[in-house]
Amino acid sequence: MITPNHKAPLTFATIEPDAGLKAALAKPRVDLIAEITASQLKGRGGAGFPTGVKWNLAAAAQADTKYVICNADEGEPGTFKDRVLLSDHADLVFEGMTIGGYAIGSKIGILYLRGEYTYLRAHLDAVLAARRAKGLLGKNVAGKQGFEFDIQIRMGSGAYVCGEETALIESLEGHRGEPRNRPPFPVDTGLNKLPSVVNNVETFAWVTSILVKGSAWFKAIGTQRSTGLKIFSVSGDCKQPGIYEFPMGITVAKMLEAVGGSDAKAVQIGGASGHCVPASEFGRVIAFEDVSTGGSVIVFGAHRDMLHVAKNFLEFFVEESCGQCTPCRDGNPKLLGGVELLEQGRCSMRYLNELSSLGETMQIASKCGLGQSAPNAFLSIVKHFKDELMGRTQGEAH
Amino acid sequence: MLVTEQERLKSDIGTWLERYGRDRSALIPVLQEIQKKYTRISEYGMQVLADQLGIHPVEVYSVVSFYAFLDHKPKGKFVIRLCRTVSCDMQGKARVAQQLESDLGITFGETTSDGKFSLEWANCLGMCDQGPALLVNDIVYTRVTPAMVNDILETCRKTFGVYALESTHEEGHA
Amino acid sequence: MADNLNDSTSRAPVSQTGHVIPPVDDEGMIGARVTLTIDGQEVKVPLGTTIHDAAKRAGIHIPTLCAHPDLCMAGLCRVCVVEVEGMRTLQASCAYPVSQPMKIHTHTRKVRQARRHIIDLMLSHHYGECYACGRNNNCELQTLAKEYGVDFFRFGHPDKPMYAKDESSHSVIRDMNKCVLCRRCVRTCIDLQEVGCLEAVDRGDKTKIATFMDKPLADVVCINCGQCINRCPTGALRANDPTDEIWAAIDDPKKHVVIQTAPAPRAAIGECFGLEPGHPLTFELNTAMKLCGFDKVFDTNFTADLTIFEEGAELLLRLQDALKTKKGPVFLPQFTSCSPGWVKYLEHFYPEYIPNLSSAKSPQQMFGAVIKTYYAQLNNLDPKDIVTVALMPCSAKKFECNRPEMTDSGFKDVDYGLTTRELAKMIQEAGIDLPKMAKSDFDSPFGSATGSGVIFGTTGGVMEAALRTVIELVVGIKVENLFDHADIIPLRGMDGIKYVELTIPSVGEVPAILKPLFESWDFLKGVTVKVAVAHGTANAHKVMEDLKNGGPLSQCHFIEFMGCPGGCIGGGGQPIPTSQEIREARAKAIYAEDSAYPIRKSHENPAVLELYTKFLTEGPCGHKSHKLLHTHYTPRGKYIAE
């Protein structure tokens, strides 16, 4: 039913099983974290926090119990790479979590799997069982005396916001998935108020790969501020949608060429919470310093109505906002109301500017990263497609 | 709710709490079990669970109402969730939605009167390259076309198993 | 012992608790203080101080809405955002504890714009007009709108309500059309009071504050304490207001309208007239109420003193049964029963402990029963023409007077419970400037009261009054011999749970009034009486759990419980706002009033003694007392019916 979607072999397919773990366990913890830090790997979920720094903070935190949490609550519209990684390369992900456990001094790993991926559960349980049987989980992992680590799976229940790490932790604790105030950060006060590392599925797989191939290999790829390779989920109006691996720093144009979407009028990069890049800006690079992304790429062909796209994204946020803070809870419905006025051709430029300014408030005043990025799509579509959006006549077809 | 069913639910909750532990972190896993087995989380179930965990029923209700996959209203045996997010939208989700409504005779948010099917929207199922996608309970269907809808529903009806016989007279209605 | 019981057991999710960095003992230690630059001004604050509090120290005002001094910091309304140099996003100053030097700007263009947007967003679904709202001029949303110069509704304003008002409760009315989702009520109900009948439900734009399954408040486990009202920034929560009915009674020449006033409202009502907390207006209020048209003004302290007799005799009887006659099951510790919020809490959460609850009615209800019997007789009035109003600091009193069992006079003993806020409104409506009123006394025959009755109004007061009387009647010595000026200090103050032991060295003669019940006090000789005091139902919860687990408090003989933090002075009918500081000021006023009374002990109240001579002739806990002054309770349990 699910067709394979690798358009090119992923690096992950070439990584020798358990080699990364063995390499990690052979190092002192400090050196292990130093290796990750040297690779300059940044979180692949989208926020781009340096993984080595995060692990170092968690390793330094004093506590008897710490947690390694893998964020598999992949809910960003247009993102499906984690599903593919968990289907095809679950061992690499679990290996990365185990390496994380060793690095920060944790015995407990938790994979938070979104409810929509329940069908992956049996497969993942089997992979975990096999790893336990091979001594790669449990006591004295891979023969390393005194290193104990195991992984449990916890299921999500249909809430996009649980992809935000503190909301995910709230959910694990049995609460509504509502993001926490920062500080404190999870590395210090996370699950059950204990130090916790939360990383994306892909990040863990890259950790394993880096341990096998070395930080120098990883660092040599990409740009100075965005090193390494990145997995992209490509969908929309292109000839070959699917999963792709590109170096960081690739231009939008080059990527579109690879996926067969060169005639696009715009690309949404980073999902609903990302930015809409119009054709005039296809020369921009995908990297943390320019267009940053968790890997979602949605291609819009010439015939797409960008107002309809903005509406779809806003409907998503109106429903998926946790409802806690005012800017996100009450702001998104106002933006959606603006889109509806645009549809009817009844939105004044003055009000549209007011809404754009509201969007800017949401970007800086919302409590969590998701609320802060909710207006991104709306703002970039308004910025680039004003002529397409405004002055519509009743019943105008787009 | 019948007393016997209440007792069954109470004893199930006890079993699940043994499995997941008796602190608040067990709340969502147990709610997921209740939802799966009983297709809903009843008022009674919420109160029993609250009592067992030493929290207030409204806290359980608050959590149930937050998560899309938890519900206090009864759901059908088969919950169909059609992805409405942008990629699936661009690949023709609207026509699949129309056909689902026509074939089931209900609109989104409703459950068929025989209690077999519930129809709901979902936000991004992570099948964006193979849309339109839908979930039937835990099973994912991709590249769904309007013409495929009937086949999917028929597959469900056939897997009704032991319940199929008792409800044959209702079959035509659905 | 009570130390660990006073530890916090916050149950709010971490998403709604601000990060607390424990204060360093020695502020002089290196690293114990952080230097901030706020709007160009340097300020040194202890590590862990929030940006908001640091700004306050520097005299800089940052507006807040979801923050409340009694509650954990949620950081969710975002009104208090400020700009921190080096950070891309604005930070919620109320929930940001500082741990390193920072440069903060509190009113940049970005900040002002964000605040204005947030206020406009709230107003866009806040239904109603200010001039038709009970919180007009005392509304935090209105204040914010004014501060930020809101002169039009940027994102619209609702022209029709979205929700039906919930008017099911005798005590608390919920109008969610005015709710701005600050969740103070949720944190109050679940965290501060441990009752847990309100929570945020649904998500996204559908988020709302609701009861279990959206049931009417009257059908869920609400104890009517009204603490949510006191902390609501808008008019979304208010008490069930009987002033129209009371005015109608006053206007009706056939009706004899009697008002009794409890001590806590008198200590606080000045706040509704612009006075600082802690200015009691007891005697000015007497004049004002007469001007409003009440026929008689009586002092609830009279029945507070009566309560000490009835509840005290009941306690001594339980002790006699436990220590001397050893008959039957004896339920100790005895619990006080004058706080209706606490009583309902117990009925819901610990119904198995109902036998421990004193059967004595609360002073309010005793008063009603006495007015419609003894007072009616004395004045040749038909009780059906008497309307009794009770001025109370309390929203739960409204429920209490509507309990079906509270009709022992043959009529509804108390017709209306009136809160401090509502009486202030009546006085304002009558055009009376309360603080300028001349002082006048209470009316006879229930005007004489003691200092012991007054202190019922604050946590520890009932226990202090009871001990004063027990020491004198049982030990036979002056309280002043044990406690300077008869002030039992260990029972005072705002600690959540207080505990006192007192050994009875020797016993005196049984006074005549108690002779029908006790031959001698010998059974109490050498006994160490153990008592405890808890206020706020979260503390009551801790005490009850300790009791259930056979902890140290289970050894107590008598425990005073008050439903509200601070006792009645912090009641759900008191002026808004409230805070520990305000409650302490009110308590101070109460103790000052106590000190000023010529008679400070309940058993010396001449009017009470006269009542026992002329009306309740069998004495405390006698047959007639039992009929009129005692009651029974309803085991309600926690289960909420479908």
What does this structure look like?
Chain A has 398 residues and is α/β, with parallel strands linked by helices. Chain A has 3 domains: 11-220, NADH-ubiquinone oxidoreductase 51kDa subunit (Rossmann fold, 3-Layer(aba) Sandwich), CATH 3.40.50.11540; 229-300, Ubiquitin-like (UB roll) (Roll); 306-389, de novo design (two linked rop proteins) (Up-down Bundle). Helix content of chain A is 42%, strand content 13%. Chain A has 16 helices and 9 strands. Chain A has helices at residues 19-25, 29-39, 51-60, 81-88, 90-104, 121-133, 165-172, 201-213, 215-220, 252-259, 306-320, 326-343, 349-365, 369-373, 376-384, 386-389, and strands spanning 67-72, 108-113, 150-155, 196-200, 229-236, 242-247, 266-269, 275-278, 296-300. In chain A, the strands form 2 sheets. Chain A has a 5-stranded mixed β-sheet. A 4-stranded parallel β-sheet of chain A has the order 3-2-1-4, with helices on both faces. In chain A, β5 and β6 form a beta hairpin. Chain A is globular, with a radius of gyration of 21 Å. Chain B has 174 residues and is of the alpha+beta class. Chain B folds into 2 domains: 3-66, Orthogonal Bundle (Arc Repressor Mutant, subunit A); 78-171, Glutaredoxin, CATH 3.40.30.10. Chain B has helices at 3-20, 27-38, 43-53, 57-66, 86-90, 93-104, 149-158, 163-166, 168-171; strands at 78-83, 117-122, 134-136, 139-141. In chain B, strands 2-1-3-4 form a 4-stranded mixed β-sheet, with helices on one face. The longest helix of chain B is centred in the N-terminal third of the chain and has 18 residues, at 3-20. Chain B is elongated. The two termini of chain B are 25 Å apart. Chain C is of the alpha/beta class. Chain C folds into 4 domains: 2-107, Ubiquitin-like (UB roll) (Roll), CATH 3.10.20.740; 121-239, Alpha-Beta Plaits; 253-302 and 364-436, Rossmann fold, CATH 3.40.50.1780; 306-360 and 449-629, Fe-only Hydrogenase (Larger Subunit), Chain L, domain 3, CATH 3.40.950. Chain C is built from 21 helices and 17 strands. In chain C, the strands form 5 sheets. Chain C has a 5-stranded mixed β-sheet, sandwiched between helices. Chain C has a 4-stranded parallel β-sheet with strand order 11-10-13-14, sandwiched between helices. In chain C, a hairpin with a 6-residue loop joins β7 and β8. Chain C is globular and about 80 Å long. The interface between A and B is large, with 56 and 39 residues.
